[in-house]
Amino acid sequence: MKDLKVVYALIQNENGEVLLVHNTDDDGWSLPGGKVEYGETLVEALEREVMEETGLTAKVGDIVSINEGKSTRMNVHTLFIMFKVTVDEYKTEIHMKDEIAELRWLTVEEADEKLVYYHHSLKEFLSNKATYYNEGYVD
């Protein structure tokens, strides 16, 4: 079974709204993020994905959720890691128009309705905290 890591950004604006992206491949909504590429750290991948999908420069903070799932059909074991992310500016721009159809700032309640794969409210994730530390290369 192949291992896959996927990172997501929980970004909240000054009004308390969270940013969601509407994906073209499955016609669904998600937090900005995506697959960690070979050689990337989790933070590098998330910074890249947020820029590609939203045009925002991400300041990656603490981990707020780790989920996992297995797919026998795809023969993959996936770790989904959600980070709290801050940005200096809230003006968004889709750079990956073939992957992202729309960006939308929504209230937490509205976002919860669109994010059907989470069993908890984003409110819960906004208050979670687990420190992330990259230990770099160890010989």
Automatic annotation (TrEMBL):
Molecular function terms from GO: hydrolase activity
Ranges for domain Nudix hydrolase: 1-130
Keyword Membrane: no
Keywords: Hydrolase
InterPro entries hit by this protein: Nudix_hydrolase, NUDIX_hydrolase-like_dom_sf, NUDIX_hydrolase_CS, NUDIX_hydrolase_dom
Keyword Lipid biosynthesis: no
UniProt EC number: 3.6.1.-
Family: Belongs to the Nudix hydrolase family.
Name of the protein: NUDIX hydrolase
Organism: Staphylococcus petrasii
Gene from which this protein is expressed: nudI
